[in-house]
Structures are given as structure tokens and as C-alpha cells.
């Protein structure tokens, strides 16, 4: 379990990125931090592995304040996946996946053997192991990034807009893949995105943030749709318009669900 | 041409002497400039000062530096060590800006991601920043190689033997072929060292080789995969 207690981050120039945040991130679930740019979601994520240190409050992992843990050691125990994969361009795919185990001092042979298994896990062909990242497609690179994040079998996986830079088709594929993986592995995933659809698809808990690092609502997608905390949330999730504002009409005795524009979204199962 | 055939031994020997002067200076310039370049990259405020001071070194006339150095080092004017130090200073002046640029060229995302997965500061320097700065560092090194090999000839004027001795001797004795031999041998040496450095770069940085030679194939493959 990850817990934010009254966490604030003010940068030296005075900007407040995160303001007095309290959240509990439950174990073995996916929590998605969603908001527009400048809402402090990435800053919040980076406080978990001490890429950013808060200026006020505490971040606790299983009851331990991360400020008391050596940052390098802490990071080696937490999976991290970022946009544009963040792979090391000068290391082969296999070495990229094995990065953290090698840093931890595992033998090269063991680390490589495990890395090959991880390529299977994320649905990549083992023949890609000897390629350099630049020789892969964007989607493949992102899968390698996920494999690297899983390499030390961490309890916590931090994902910073990991699918932000790939095209929509590949993104949809990667999202499904993540859902499958999460079903198998049950990690504590903290996922940052600005895409509310992605947040609702992946999140067990969705945390909606607004400008200045304030949390508007933290709840399950269904609850957010049913009871948006305020007009900002209602507007952000689009509860009152488009494809989320569904209503039922009757067509030849069957109940058809249509969206705000009158487009058919499906049939109500009775 | 007669002069050349009867003095092949001398030319060969001077080439070795010339190598012994320039190679240490080239290596030292590289080794000294990398940390300075890294400092200039890492601490923005130091950049202007460091790069200006190092750049100014190049403005000192070479003969003046050769003659003035013994006062600081306590070595004799004709000591080869003196010349190596002077050549190193010029080498640093040439390469230090490129060194700073080399570290700037490493993408911020990659540095951050290395930190995020648990590289220590030192581990990140040796394992990520230095190798990724490699291609730009190499381009700087190539300039230093050529300039050092050429500048080393000036040592002949103060009596440190090198291929430059062929110029001074040729001028004094009016042997044109000796001067030409000196020039050609210097160029051959510079080009040879340059080729060696490129080869070494390809060996040490295999990822740059693959990326460029497979570039076209890659793009085609990527397009295929992403449209599939």
C-alpha cells in the first residue's frame, strides 16, 4: 500500500505542483492519476520513487516513509515505465530488460535468461533480444519498457504516460495487454495519463487532479460517473455529453442504448 | 627522390618519434577535457567560464608557449615532456567545447529513465552518459588528432625532433624533397590515427553502426508493422 499524507511540492520558483494531497493507493490494484498538464500527476508519481522529494508531508510505502530509504535502493525495487520507453539506446533489448537485475549484481547469465522469459511475458518474440531499441517499432519499444519494469518482480509498477506516444491502434493493443498482465501478476500499478478513457479502462481507482495539484475526486470509474464530486469532474469525464451520456430508447420492442448524439452504442441485455 | 631512398630509416624513425609526442598529448587532451566538458554540461553557471578559459588557451602563440612552459614545469626547453604538455593544452582548447556539447546531446528522457530504474550518479555517468556522449566525443577527438599531429611539427623549431625536423632541415639545406616528405608523412600519420579512431569508435559503439547501416530497412519495417 502506498499512502500520501498531506503531501505538498513547491518548486524553488514558487510554483505549487502538488497541494496537500492525501491518497491511499491500495495494493494489487491499478490506480490511475489523470489530469491535464500542470495538474501535478507526474510529480505525484515521481514522489513514490523519490525522483521528486516533497516539500511537505510524507509518502509511505507499506508504512515506511520513503524519505528514510536510500533513493537508489528504493528505485531498484520499483518498476518504472515511461513515455518514449526510456530505453537505453546503446544497449541491446536483452540488456535493457536486464538493466536492473544487473545493477543489483545478479549474474549476467541469470539476468539474461530471466529477460528472455520477460520478453515472452510481454508478448515479444525472443528474436528481438539482440536488436537495439532504435530497430524496434514504437509499440515494441514500449513492451520492452514494460518488460524492464517487471524485471525485478517489483510489488509496485509506476507507469508515466507509457502509451502516450504510440498511435491509437497500438495503444489499444498495449492497454489490453496491460489488463491481461495485471490480471496475471496483480501488481500495485500507479499509472499516469491525461486520457480519461484510458483512466476508466485501466483503473480500479481513478484519481482526478486539477490545476495546482489538487485532487478533485478519487474513486472507482463507476462511482465517478454516478456521483461526480463537482462540476470540474463532471466536465472532465464528460458525464453529461457525448458517448457517456447514454439513454435507452425502444426499437421494435428491444431496448437500444444511444449516446447524446443519438448514435447507437449497444443493446441493453435483459 | 634520391634523398628519400637513402633516408627512409630517418623518416621512419621520425614518424615513431612524432607518434610518441602526439599520441600521449591526444590521449591526455581527451582524458582532461571529458571531466571539464561534463562539469560545463552539469553546472550551467560554470559553462561560460570554463569554455572561455579553455578556448583562450588556443590564442597563445605556440612558439611562445613552448618557450614559456619550462619556467612553470622546471623542465629543459628541449624536453619532449614539455612539448607534450603544450600540445595537451592546445588539444584541450580544441576539444573541450565539443565535450560539453557531447554531454548535452544525451537526451534528458534517457538520463531521467536511467535514474528512475536505479542507476547511481557514478553508474549513470559510466554506463549511460559517457557512452551516449561517445559519438560527439569522437568527432571532437578526430579534430584533436589532426591538429595535434600537425602542431607537433612546430617542436622542431625549438629543437624537439619530430617530422617537423624534416622541414627545418630541408629549409636550411635546401632539400625540397625533404620538406615535401615531411608534409606527406605528417598527413599520412594524421589520417592513419584518424582512421584508427573511427575504427575504435565502431568497435566501442556498435549501436551507432547498426542504426545507420540499417536505417532504411528499419523505417520500412516499422511502417509495415505499424500499419499492420
From TrEMBL, chain A:
Coiled coil: none
ABC transporter domain residues: 2-236
Record flagged with keyword Aminoacyl-tRNA synthetase: no
InterPro entries: AAA+_ATPase, ABC_transporter-like_ATP-bd, ABC_transporter-like_CS, P-loop_NTPase
Keywords: ATP-binding, Nucleotide-binding, Transport
Record-level Gene Ontology MF annotations: ABC-type quaternary ammonium compound transporting activity; ATP binding; ATP hydrolysis activity
UniProt KW Transport keyword: yes
Name of the top EC class for this enzyme: translocase
Domain of life: Bacteria
EC number from the UniProt entry: 7.6.2.9
UniProt cross-references to Pfam families, sorted A to Z: ABC_tran
Family: Belongs to the ABC transporter superfamily.
Protein's name according to its UniProt entry: ABC-type quaternary amine transporter
UniProtKB/TrEMBL annotation, chain B:
Stretches that traverse the bilayer: 15-36, 48-69, 81-100, 143-167, 179-200
Localization terms from the record: Cell membrane; Membrane
Membrane topology: Multi-pass membrane protein
UniProt cross-references to InterPro entries, sorted A to Z: ABC_transp_perm/SBD, MetI-like, MetI-like_sf
Entry's Gene Ontology cellular component terms: plasma membrane
UniProt key word Cytoplasm: no
PROSITE patterns, per database record: ABC_TM1
The UniProt record lists the keyword NADP: no
Domain annotation ABC transmembrane type-1: ranges: 15-200
Record's keyword terms, sorted: Membrane, Transmembrane, Transmembrane helix, Transport
Family: Belongs to the binding-protein-dependent transport system permease family.
The name this protein goes by in its record: ABC transporter permease subunit
